[in-house]
Amino acid sequence: MEKYGDMVLRVAFTYVKERQLAEDLSQEVFIRCYQSLDAFENCSSYQTWLYRITVNYCKDYVKSWSFRNLIPYSLIKRNGQEFDSVASMVMKKEDNDALFLQVLKLSVKLREVLVLYYYEDLAVEEIADVLDLNPNTVKSRLHRARKSLKYHMEGGVILEK
Predict the structure, then answer these.
(1) Cα angle at 95 between 9 and 92, to 5 degrees?
(2) Full set of structural domains in the chain with CATH
(3) Any idea where the RNA polymerase sigma-70 region domain is (predicted)?
(4) How far apart are CA 44 and CA 126, in angstroms?
């Protein structure tokens, strides 16, 4: 957990976009890893195996009813009286880190390859292994993600597909 905890947390955050929820998912990932440690076959590195478990668990969670139908805590003001508008939330986050915010707005397919490539420093082949994709698919998703980010950062509308 000490060695890979931050990495698992970052990957989980890119899926759920809420720190506390990402921390909960990270704990669940490590519990799953511990429970299935005997199934680890050493065909790949432990880090790749851990990425794979994290990505799969986060994808399953994002598809779940509870994630899609509950209001995230971050949308509720601290005093509980009213909701922040999406626009004001985006404005606040853009002030802090515009680029990472734009990365989070990408579709999951584009976002996951960007995060694994730039934030986790994985090679294209490693990303292909983690996501069970062809390396050329990873390259094309990276290209589309970069193009979309560039377009949006220059004032356009983000392209998601």
Answers:
(1) 80
(2) 1-73 (1.10.1740.10), 85-161 (1.10.10.10)
(3) 2-64
(4) 10
Contact 55, 37 (CB under 8 A): no
Strand partners of residue 23: none
Task: Return the sign of the alpha-carbon dihedral for residues 101, 54, 65, 110.
Answer: positive
- Asked if residue 152 lies in contact with residue 161, where contact means CB atoms within 8 angstroms, the answer is no
pLDDT of residue 80: 44
- Which residues partner with 83 through β-bridges? 76
* Long-range pairs, 133-141, Cβ under 8 A, ≥24: 138/113, 141/109, 141/110, 141/113
Rg of the chain, C-alpha, whole Å: 17
Predicted confidence pLDDT, tens digits, the chain (161 residues): 888 888 899 888 888 888 888 899 999 999 988 888 888 777 777 888 888 888 888 888 888 766 665 555 554 444 444 445 555 555 554 544 667 777 778 888 998 898 888 878 889 999 999 888 999 999 999 999 989 888 877 766 544 54
- Is residue 5 within 8 A of residue 47, CB to CB? The reply is no
Q: Could you count the other beta carbons within 10 Å of the beta carbon of residue 117?
A: 20
